[in-house]
DNA sequence: CATGAATGAGACTTCATTCAT
DNA sequence: GATGAATGAAGTCTCATTCAT
């Protein structure tokens, strides 16, 4: 059920999109907060898992970053309704939800943090990099890219932006613009 | 009125913070959407104007970028309640608002676009830069930085992040990490 | 089924306690009202029958009153869940139920009425007794005693109150406080 | 507002009877529980206060009992809608309300307890009286009398039952049936 | 101009009831 | 006969908006 996506945050609309009656939603979720939070948790989990799978067991920071972007854009790119929920509806004022969002995002943020830390340790990223800022650049850029995609109607292929986004982030992180990713794939 | 800030998006609270009665708000604004949109417009206008003032009449792309970040963080940094409205409450599901947001953001986005275009033309930024992606990296990084600041309680000085954010963006845009901004100020 | 008691008036819980599925309940009862009304009817019937059995065929008004209290407190005292349904859930605002309750209570009220009338005729109760009021004192005192028992958690033995309640009622009805019940049992 | 009475426990009906819109109710009460509890508290307070006023400063237990019944029946007798709320709607299954009812009834129950204790101490009531049971007989009889009045449509004058109810209670409490109340008034 | 009490549409949620299996 | 997932009517409550003062 939660995969089918929603293009509205009202329970009635969620139920309608899912093709069930209003009350049916409450057989599977405790309340509205639970619905949104479940969707977020599931999607973030999927992105993190997928990025790890793609990455394999030879972790290279830049490759891992590329895989994360890939996983993120692929997961949301094939489901605009889901993306809409994550980008728009979950970011509402309800403090009860907002409090949980940070916690749910932690695996994602940890993945990002690990990438950056590893990159600095290995010397692949600039040593004077502020880790906090780096994390925010990565998530902010990815998030804003998805945002823009959603608000223009999700008309183009989001995965086409994987490489350009990776490129600009990599450059910001490494200070080099000559990373030859192609040779490694 | 709209400068006084809000830490909630309910009209009653807006009125209370502004020190007027609920009904009085409707003498100045058409409806709630109008309030939020006005705040956004005013704030964005302020940021753009301030960044232009700071920039002066000798436009240099990187300097302009720094001024934009400065203007953005200074404007929101001294008014967390206002920032909260922009980051949280304005991003609601109401499609009527969302439609206007893009238009209001245009001056800001144009400023960003001008900076990037100028930077590429002048050779200060990488020629293979995707302009669209660059714009999203800039706004996304700045926005996410403000977001994180708000959600951790706006406890630290946002303006302290001007230089680190500029640094990471500049590197991503130029491919160089040796920009000596200090020598010019 | 209806003997197994309930500590909630929701049909789902009734079904769970009875060990059947929700829908099964509707094979035996027309609707929820029917369930509650059936429980009431059965329980009242049981109390009246039991009090008659205890009383035997030599009806003496005071003894009959004692037997009624005995039957009432014994029936409910061993099944707090059932008592809870009768004292709490059946007294809901639904006028459709309320209308039936009076009718179902009639055998009980008739028993009470018969006791009082017989008592007056036989000269064992005060002649100036208002029959209506006497009936209400009897039922009201018994009912309130069960009520208090339920709302304090049904922690003590309800049947221990048979004699004290009988004592106070008998005194109110006879004007004498020297009825030596013990000698007759 | 809370004096106007209600003949239904739905907030919408309460609002309708009070002649206001649904939302208006919430300007004066926190929630539905608050409405019912407020009515109960106010009415119980009124009965207790009125009975004290009637009683004057020369407390005599039996006279005090008569005044309590008088206050109770007068208060409810002139407002059947209010009585209906107290007798029917407040006794619903909602445990949150039920928990508060006992506390709100305390002043009333304390008044009753004081009367009985004083009566026993003064020797006007039977020494072997079980105080707990006596309290329940008093409240139970009064309550059931009001109940019966409500469920038969509140068609007769409730205050006409003050003396008969007092008579039966007094007899039950004193063991005498010759109390000459008239000589004292 | 300003007020703020009142409004009422609409949101979330519960639960008695149904019906395909 | 039995099931229990699904239903959807109806209830409580919020809050943007109005208008008599």
UniProtKB/TrEMBL annotation, chains A, B, C, D:
Q: Where along the sequence lies the DNA-binding region?
A: 10-29
* Name by which UniProt lists this protein: TetR family transcriptional regulator
Q: Which GO terms describe its molecular function?
A: DNA-binding transcription factor activity; transcription cis-regulatory region binding
Keyword field contains Nucleotidyltransferase: no
Q: Which organism is it from?
A: Ferroacidibacillus organovorans
Q: Record's Pfam families?
A: TetR_C_4 (PF08359), TetR_N (PF00440)
Q: Does the keyword DNA-binding apply?
A: yes
Q: Where is the HTH tetR-type domain?
A: 1-47
Q: Per its UniProt record, what InterPro entries does this chain match?
A: Homeodomain-like_sf (IPR009057), HTH-type_TetR-like_transc_reg (IPR050109), HTH_TetR (IPR001647), Tet_transcr_reg_TetR-rel_C_sf (IPR036271), Tscrpt_reg_YsiA_C (IPR013570)
> What's the superkingdom here?
Bacteria
Keywords linked to the UniProt accession: DNA-binding
């Amino acid at each position: 059920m939660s995969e089918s996506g929603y293009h509205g945050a009202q329970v009635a609309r969620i139920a309608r999109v899912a093709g069930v009656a209003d009350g049916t939603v409450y057989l599977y979720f405790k309340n509205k907060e639970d619905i949104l939070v479940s969707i977020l948790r599931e999607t973030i989990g999927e992105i993190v898992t997928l990025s790890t799978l793609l990455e394999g067991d030879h972790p290279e920071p830049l490759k891992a970053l590329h895989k994360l972007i890939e996983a993120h854009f692929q997961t949301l790119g094939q489901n605009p309704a889901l993306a809409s929920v994550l980008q728009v509806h979950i970011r509402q004022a309800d403090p009860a939800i907002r409090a949980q969002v940070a916690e749910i995002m932690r695996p994602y943020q940890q993945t990002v943090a690990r990438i950056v830390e590893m990159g600095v340790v290995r010397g692949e990223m600039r040593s004077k990099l502020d880790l906090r800022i780096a994390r925010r650049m990565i998530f902010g850029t990815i998030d804003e890219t998805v945002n823009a995609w959603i608000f223009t109607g999700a008309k183009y292929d989001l995965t086409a932006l994987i490489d350009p986004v990776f490129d600009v982030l990599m450059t910001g992180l490494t200070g080099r613009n000559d990373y030859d990713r192609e040779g490694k794939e």
